[in-house]
Amino acid sequence: MNSSRNGPTASPMRSLTSGHGGLYISAPGKIILFGEHAVVGGKTAVAGSIDLRTYASLFTSKDGRIYLSLPDLGVEKTWMLKDLVNIIDQINAECPPEDDSPLNLENGYTWAQKMAGIVGEHKKVERAFLVFWYLLIGVFQRKSIDILSSSGDMHASTCKKHLEKTLLDLLAVKLTVKSELSSCVGLGSSGAYCVCIATALLQTAGIIPAPSIPVNDCGDLTWDDHHLEIIRNWSAAAESIIHISASGLDATMSTFGGLASYGKGQPIAQLHNVPELRVILVNSKIERSTGEMVKRVKRKQDEYPDIINGIFNTIDSISLKAVDVLKKASQDSVDSYNPLNELCRICNEQLSALGVGHAKLDQICTLLARYGIYPKITGAGGGGCVFGFLKKDTASTVISMIEEELSKHGYEIWQPVLGGPGVSWHFDRPNVFPPPSRAVTPTHTSRHATPA
Predict the structure, then answer these.
(1) Are 222 and 420 in contact (CB under 8 A)?
(2) Where is the GHMP kinase C-terminal domain (predicted)?
(3) S-S: 416 plus which of 50, 241, 277, 308, CB 3.0-4.6 Å?
């Protein structure tokens, strides 16, 4: 597929559409294997993507409106794109763009509030709207500058009309987001949401080119590392709207996929050729706020700095040892189960000492320990999920016994594939989206569909 831009007024979405019309993007969730909370303090974390994903579909709108549909939350919101056209000069003056970087977060957040019409306390739905608007304003600004710089000596009024028409063509869209990921349980649902929206908008506006790297045999594609880094950068900035002091790990894993070690302010270090790892993932169904759990640990750190910093250092050592185990397993076919299982046990004790445990998590850990599995909290804790490594030869009858016992307590259980692909463009319409209605017709320029 052609990855070059077709000029400032041509939407790549028109030439890169799925076999079913529209633009379909997905991004995976993640589990943190080791390094929770310590990563916020600059220590090492180890994480892996999982094959539970968030999906976005994007279609052009014929009425100049912007639609954001979030069926999982039961909401759809509509705005007029021309309202953004009318204030783009003010935004450019307050938030000067920097190459392909995202919008300045402080100013961009303020403008996102204004455009979304949101004031006061921000609940889950409001934060989802703010992320969308923050990214849309950034993409809109970047594209408007490209258009204006190519307008030459065009008269001001003509230039304004040209700008509005072009941006309406590119960014008057209906974006729908659906997810297989439970929210507020540490599986990276916020990061996957940000990555899906950032990718869809960046692709539509031509800020990143068409993907060209095969992901599988189904025609799905991803981007090269340079453009994945642009996606990660924009997504991580947007995630800070949802989670204050976000480490960027969720956005990183959702963008790149695989298994990786990561430290705040450091480049991601992909772990290659790691043998297949079996894990069991259990959702306590206790929701919690990542931001609140991070604040709780920060208060403890302020009160007991030497102790908490010591725990962070221990967690860092655990993460580095885990990286060493995984690398040796990839090189020497060494059985990695026993050391990883033991590292989980030690790490979970450190997390409990930080005060991020919960009685339900303790119950799950005790139950799994009876089968020789030492699980640990994954994510911020205080609820959410725990995971444990499984032996390669764990019998299906044992798994069934574990699942039956956990289900009796109302817990949700998965055995996800660990370390799969990151953000992807899909040729076929993902099953989470219903077939387009009969009212949906392709544009004359391509098979890209337009909802009525």
Answers:
(1) no
(2) 339-406
(3) 50
